[in-house]
Design brief:
By secondary structure, the protein is an alpha/beta fold. It is built from 4 helices and 7 strands, in the order E-E-E-H-H-E-E-E-E-H-H. About 12% of the residues have low confidence.
């Protein structure tokens, strides 16, 4: 298959303070007609800038530990994507599977070819150079049409080591999962120029941003605009 891979490093702090993630390199977006306000497409013209229509993206897990820990935090996000009218019209679906794929499914030279439409979640302690609070997304896309293909996400396992877990902690981890899944769809890190200060802080701007309520894990308005653009770009 004609595929390409990229790696996105994500700072996902569990502190309550806002953390600005500015990435002006992504600000230009893909070709004319594909830009939006409040978000930035991943890797400019060198990455995914559309979601396939009549297609299913399936979230799987590398092992039972990853499945047990990440599944609760992904439910709101997957449900939100499937409820979007644009997704329904395009017949694009997201499935939160219970499937365990094993370690051979990721972290190899050919990991982009291990499952068309498969997004694998992995737990790994400080996956980015051993740095605290970082997770990593490894998305794939088709070179021919720049559509999101799948790939895998390394969630920092230290999130589950946090002592005295609170409701706020639960909401933060939901939003972090949504942030990483957003990278798999093609979204990058918009800076403050791309969204209104009157809106909820985009999850793609600050991983622990978004909603601080039972709606955590659902994409705020700015992120949703980006996802709408991605699905409208597809075919």
């Amino acid at each position: 298959m004609n595929l390409k891979s990229k790696t996105m490093v994500t700072l996902a702090m569990l502190a309550t303070a806002s953390i600005g993630l500015s990435n002006t390199a992504f600000a230009a977006g893909p070709p004319k007609g594909s830009t939006g306000v409040g978000w930035a497409l991943k890797y400019n013209t060198k990455g995914a800038w559309n979601l396939k229509h009549n297609f299913t993206y399936t979230v799987k897990f590398v092992n039972t530990d990853s499945r047990t820990k990440s599944t609760p935090y992904l439910k709101n996000t997957v449900a939100y994507l499937n409820a979007m009218p644009e997704m329904k019209k395009a017949k694009t679906k997201f499935v939160l599977s219970s499937t365990v794929v094993g370690t051979t499914h990721y972290n190899t030279k050919n990991w982009c070819g291990n499952g068309y439409g498969t997004i694998v979640f992995v737990l790994k302690y400080r996956p980015f150079q051993g740095k605290k609070n970082y997770s990593m997304a490894h998305p794939c896309y088709h070179l021919a049409n720049n559509s999101a293909f799948g790939g895998y996400v390394e969630m920092n396992s230290e999130y589950w080591l946090t002592k005295n877990k609170t409701t706020a902690w639960t909401y933060a981890v939901r939003n972090i999962h949504a942030h990483e899944l957003g990278h798999m769809l093609g979204l990058g890190h918009p800076d403050a120029r791309y969204f209104s200060k009157n809106e909820a802080t985009p999850i793609m701007h600050v991983p622990t941003g978004g909603y601080k309520s039972s709606n955590a894990g659902k994409y705020p308005a700015a992120d949703t605009r980006g996802i709408r653009r991605l699905i409208s770009n597809g075919s």
